[in-house]
């Protein structure tokens, strides 16, 4: 009995030890898996900020939240961009459940204009050595009141905008119109709130908006404009480890040690949006779409111009919807294209065409004027030159046709060569028979006797009867053509 009890005790002890070992192993494995799943998601902003950039960043932050990433790092190098896209990005950052670190890198990069706002709106603001930020003065877009974007930094500390094309004028802190003052004060209030939320220098942020000032990385760190100056990504994650940041639901301490780096590059959707929303591409899509629809209406059933034109026009309208455009310029472009097409269908000897080119060029110039995302003048000039060549060809073609005899109708019959199909029979003072004229069999009369096969000249038409007279025999080539027509008529 004692032996049985002892055996059971030893068995239970061994089972307990095995279960304890398994539990420790599973715990260590789960802990290791948890550490392995902790990641830093790296997104890249390189170039002007627009709808494509906005879509890429917002989707990247949402995916990082689903993956429960530890931190999102925005690698940024931008000259600025559209105000609407910038604000959407900042809203996504402020509402994010994952801390967002904006890092201006590599050396030589900048966070100008809209980039400065995004840097101030991020939970951690970082820069690499030899980078700069600033020039956050808003400018009007294409003359549309209430639609603005931060000014583009030209790289020399100046702001390009409505003050001048070269950007060498000092920006006014007050603005010259009521609308400009509204936009300015709105931008100042916005960037100060972002600065105060994260405990950064709000006074310098206001100067960046009103005076378009700039700072380098080391000066920005000294003046509490940014939080960190980091040489590389490992250095950045090491410096921000343990830092407290303000999230939407309160403060949080960052734990960025031993993170796996996950780089999310722009996908095909972002690349497609970048291409479509380029002003020059959208401009060409609109022109192709307009002409495609016109050609389809002029030749119903050809299908290809209509299908291609409709697709291009819809894509162009989408691009113009997300871009800030001057609708007066868009209307002038469409009016100019309509005049150019009208010249071909209702020739006015150049009046419609010249007016169309003038309207087209003026509309193209002011379509996105006042921003760094305008349409290049060589593109406008080249398109206008092609349209001008088309109009010149159309006008000269119509002028040449005016001197030619009619190719259809009764007028076409006069002085046309034909051939007798039988011997004409006398009927009073006239001779009657039949002729082959233009591939058709006609009743014919003549004042002289006519024999079968004789070459004749048509004088004029009276109803369905043509009056003919003997004519010289045509050249060999003309005879071949007439014989071909005769055979076709007989068939």
From TrEMBL:
User: In its UniProt entry, what is this protein called?
Assistant: Serine protease
Extract the InterPro entries matched here.
ClpP/crotonase-like_dom_sf, Membrane_assoc_protease, NA-bd_OB-fold, NfeD1b_N, NfeD_membrane
User: What GO MF annotations does this protein's record show?
Assistant: peptidase activity
Which species is listed as the source? Marinobacter zhanjiangensis
Where are the membrane-spanning stretches?
Answer: 281-298, 303-320, 326-342, 349-369, 375-395
Q: Which PANTHER family match?
A: INNER MEMBRANE PROTEIN YBBJ (PTHR33507), NODULATION COMPETITIVENESS PROTEIN NFED (PTHR33507:SF4)
Q: Where is the organism placed in the taxonomic lineage, from the top?
A: Bacteria, Pseudomonadati, Pseudomonadota, Gammaproteobacteria, Pseudomonadales
Can you give the residue ranges of the NfeD1b N-terminal domain?
44-143
Q: Which residues form the NfeD integral membrane domain?
A: 280-396
